[in-house]
Amino acid sequence: MVSAGEVSGDMHAAAVLKEVKNKIKQTEIFGMGSTALLDLGAEILIDPTAISTIGYLEAFKNIGQHFKNLKQMRQLLKKRQPDLVFLVDYSAFNMRLAKSCSQLGIPAVNYFPPSAWVYNRRRADKMAAYGTNIAAVFPMERDVYQAAGADVTFVGHPLLDLVKVQASSSELRAELKLSKVRKVIALFPGSRHSEVESLLPEMIKAAARLHKDYQTEFVLAAAAGITDQFLAKFLDKIDFDLPVLRGSNYKIMKAADLLLIASGTTSLEAAILNTPHLLGYHSAFTTYLLAKYIFKVKFVGLPNIIMQKEIIPELLQNDFTAAKIYRQVADWLENPVKLQQLKSELAVVRKKLGGGGAVKKTAELLIDKGGLRNG
């Protein structure tokens, strides 16, 4: 039985369970997920991705439906008594489901478990008490759950197997029609319309000044759901060249000298490719207050969380301004040694993420904990 509540969780779950099915041919999969699990042949009875949100208070808008889904999953758990439950991300929901697994004596493996290393370490205590097996993707995750007494396997982060670009930077610049001699800065304003609307205008203002003062070249990496029509209102009045590229994010990251990005997985991808970047974040004000003052989240960017210090500059909320972006990038351009220092730090981040093979290691953990066998 699988429980994945968001698009990213659905993709990570499907990658692991595909490996399980390759090894254990007759594995049957059912539960909660979305298109990636459906494509794998799983019996998906609940697809909650339409109500998934970012932010603490924002999630309450659909709390009634979340509890209905939880009730249905608990009923399925009792009725079908699976050999194993695979919990992927979706922490508040899956913590409750983990408790039900414990009460029924059904083993569970949690991949991308609750972020007890960011705040509220009691979450790790609870998961340990439930007997949930933790497939840790981050080193600090491993440490917190081990300290709580949980059964932990450090599998590393699956992005290490996905974020790979074989071509050199110069080859990629030729392919993407980027300058071979100028500094290239790529803009990654996010995959949601709200992110683009709050971050891209300041990115463009900073880019205009940097282009004028340092003759830098820019490129905009557009996410799949961000159309040219939507971008037109931001790009129509600019007086410098800003090509829009799609479907080549990793190539753009490796080809560029610097990145301006929206907070999220993109920062970890950039770290794996060893590309310096500045991180911007703008959330609902209530979410920001909860994170900063109640849960006391020190950093937003995953590279900073992993290193437990700010190696990637973070410009949050009203601090994400064109003037501050300009000052940081100008400092990097005028002091190349600072960029090299940052690259050295990013190399350490990559090393801390493990040696690769997370999907295979997690699949082997599922097979072991579920007692799955061929024949």
From TrEMBL:
GO molecular function: lipid-A-disaccharide synthase activity; phospholipid binding
Classification via InterPro entries: Glyco_trans_19
Keywords: Glycosyltransferase, Lipid A biosynthesis, Lipid biosynthesis, Lipid metabolism, Transferase
UniProt-listed SUPFAM superfamilies: UDP-Glycosyltransferase/glycogen phosphorylase
GO biological process, any: lipid A biosynthetic process
EC numbers, comma separated: 2.4.1.182
GO cellular component: membrane
Catalysed reaction equations from the record: a lipid X + a UDP-2-N,3-O-bis[(3R)-3-hydroxyacyl]-alpha-D-glucosamine = a lipid A disaccharide + UDP + H(+)
Job of this protein: Condensation of UDP-2,3-diacylglucosamine and 2,3-diacylglucosamine-1-phosphate to form lipid A disaccharide, a precursor of lipid A, a phosphorylated glycolipid that anchors the lipopolysaccharide to the outer membrane of the cell.
Protein name: Lipid-A-disaccharide synthase
Source species: Halanaerobium salsuginis
